[in-house]
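Question: I have long wanted to understand how a fold can be written as tokens. Here is the record:
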Amino acid sequence: MIAALDHVQLAAPPGSEAALRAYYGEVLGMTEIPKPPVLAARGGVWFQTGPVQLHLGIEQDFRPARKAHPGLRVTGIEEFAARLTERGAPVIWDGDLPGHRRFTSEDPVGNRLEFLEPLG
């Protein structure tokens, strides 16, 4: 029986770790967490905030996820969107999900991310 979502993994091209650290760490405010040594040798980086983990793994023939995406629930979505905009990340608002405010953005390698906050 499935009990919880442990993490979401996104792919990234070789050599992109510095850009990923800047975006996920500085722009989104997540904390980098250590990878086990055997996995660290493969490259990539892992991040966490609260119980949410995002793993960025290196893929030689990388293509960004344009449709597939993690949906990340935030609090204070207006302020969070302003934070991303101030740091140069795109923010595209979408009002099509009833009961929520939401927008999408892209990480520095082109992966789509959705940020949402329930109304009320």
Summary: The first strand starts at residue 8 and ends at 12. Helices lie at 17-27, 37-40, 77-86.
